[in-house]
Amino acid sequence: MIISVTLAAGEGTRMKSKIPKILHKICGKPLLEYVIDSCNRINVDKNIVVVGHGAEIVKEYFKDSSLIFKTQPISKDAPYGTGFAVMQAIDEISDDSIVIILYGDTPLITEETVRKLLDFHRTGNFDATVLSAIFENPEGYGRIIRDDEGNISKIVEDKDATTFEKEINEINSGMYSFSGRALKYALGKLKNYNSQNEYYITDVIRILNDEEYKVGVFVIDNPIEVYGVNSRSQLALCEKVIQKRINEKLMLDGVTIIDPDNTYIEEDVTIGSDTIIYPGVTLEGNTIIGEDCIIRGNTRITDSQILDRVYIESSVIESSTVGYDCHIGPYSHLRPDSHLGQNVKIGNFVEVKKATIMDNSKAGHLAYIGDAQVGKCVNVGCGVIFVNYNGREKFKTIVGDHAFLGSNSNLVAPVLIKDWGYIAAGSTITKDVEEGDLSIARAHQVNKEGWVEKKGFKKRK
């Protein structure tokens, strides 16, 4: 059995936030979720998270997950330290398990690294394995001290290191793998006889080493993976790294991203081959983009499905679906629960909300289509408003196939425009329109001769 124990009890004071540090997001996902995802991808059997500050908020966020939460006591009299945090999970650790110790604020750790750490641990038949990294500037990190045969001798904290030891650039990441039996044994012998009155997980390594358990060190390939988040600037740095990973994977899969540094795409977004993403585009949530699409300008798409060969420019699409060969924008807004069929055009400054628009229909500009069902081959003229709200309730408008909605028309719901219905420009429609009828609903035009001059608006010559 493989068990992960992720330490996530820190207060994160340098974030200066009401939100627990591990819930701050990178590319749409909390820091903690990246760590757990890396474990899940290698089929860890049990994920334990040790929480402390903001514990209830964290638990609520992950209430639908299979995570096992252990709460570290927080009081002025309670001991602290990484060793004490791991102790909170001891009743979940079996003797025959392998335990991985990780941190909730290190989102860059990858599944490949966790898998390699486990493989190294198993292959070497180690009781404990330290994950180390080579840093050009190791200041502030504990150093890995090796003996003449290259085995780990001890871990020395930066503040306790000698001048010679400070020159060592192999650092302790704070991440480990243990045999369950060895870890439980060493945790039982931990003491907090130090200036901080804390229990340190590094002392577990010392205890096992002193008692001639087999302790190994696995050097990580890419040291950036052990980078932690303690401030907003570090959060931004990690966001850049993860964004680069996402974009590179998409480009390897056949997506063209014109300017990766100025394109924001979250991890759960999928994009088909030969789609082109221009600078300024934001793709969020569980968005699916098909093949051969072009997305330009300041477009934001969230939790939506866009099928193949769709062109979108400078528009917002939220929780909606867009069919094949549609043309959206510029400056269109598809609000939640909008559904477009094939070859639909939604043009300049058109807003659609909770509406279905069928194949080959178009709304070229300056229209509002809300709470509606619009049939095939319908023309929605400039300035058409679907009047769906009376101040208390929403009502639905149904427009049949091949209808024509003239410019500046108002359709006051609930109302039905049947197939081939024709609405004259400037009409306010409050009654159903039968198939093939022309509906004119506007006041009779009256021209008052000489009225402007009589009112003195126009000066006489």
From TrEMBL:
The lineage of its organism: Bacteria, Bacillati, Bacillota, Tissierellia, Tissierellales. One of its GO terms (molecular function) is magnesium ion binding. Residues 233-253 are annotated as: Linker. Its main location: cytoplasm. Residues 5-215 form the Nucleotidyl transferase domain. Acetyl-CoA binds at residues 388-389, 407, 425, 442. Residues 266-335 form the Mannose-1-phosphate guanyltransferase C-terminal domain. Residues 1-232 are annotated as: Pyrophosphorylase. Binds 1 Mg(2+) ion per subunit. The keyword Nucleotidyltransferase applies. Pathway: Nucleotide-sugar biosynthesis; UDP-N-acetyl-alpha-D-glucosamine biosynthesis; UDP-N-acetyl-alpha-D-glucosamine from N-acetyl-alpha-D-glucosamine 1-phosphate: step 1/1; Nucleotide-sugar biosynthesis; UDP-N-acetyl-alpha-D-glucosamine biosynthesis; N-acetyl-alpha-D-glucosamine 1-phosphate from alpha-D-glucosamine 6-phosphate (route II): step 2/2; Bacterial outer membrane biogenesis; LPS lipid A biosynthesis. Its cofactor is Mg(2+). Residues 254-461 are annotated as: N-acetyltransferase. The active site is at residue 365. NCBIfam families: glmU (TIGR01173), PRK14354.1 (NF010934). This is Bifunctional protein GlmU. It catalyses: N-acetyl-alpha-D-glucosamine 1-phosphate + UTP + H(+) = UDP-N-acetyl-alpha-D-glucosamine + diphosphate; alpha-D-glucosamine 1-phosphate + acetyl-CoA = N-acetyl-alpha-D-glucosamine 1-phosphate + CoA + H(+). GO terms for biological process: cell morphogenesis; cell wall organization; lipid A biosynthetic process; peptidoglycan biosynthetic process; regulation of cell shape; UDP-N-acetylglucosamine biosynthetic process. It comes from the Bacteria. Keywords: Acyltransferase, Cell shape, Cell wall biogenesis/degradation, Cytoplasm, Magnesium, Metal-binding, Multifunctional enzyme, Nucleotidyltransferase, Peptidoglycan synthesis, Repeat, Transferase. Mg(2+) binds at residues 105, 230. In the C-terminal section; belongs to the transferase hexapeptide repeat family. In the N-terminal section; belongs to the N-acetylglucosamine-1-phosphate uridyltransferase family. Catalyzes the last two sequential reactions in the de novo biosynthetic pathway for UDP-N-acetylglucosamine (UDP-GlcNAc). The C-terminal domain catalyzes the transfer of acetyl group from acetyl coenzyme A to glucosamine-1-phosphate (GlcN-1-P) to produce N-acetylglucosamine-1-phosphate (GlcNAc-1-P), which is converted into UDP-GlcNAc by the transfer of uridine 5-monophosphate (from uridine 5-triphosphate), a reaction catalyzed by the N-terminal domain. One of its GO terms (cellular component) is membrane. Homotrimer. Its EC number is 2.7.7.23, 2.3.1.157. It is found in: Cytoplasm.
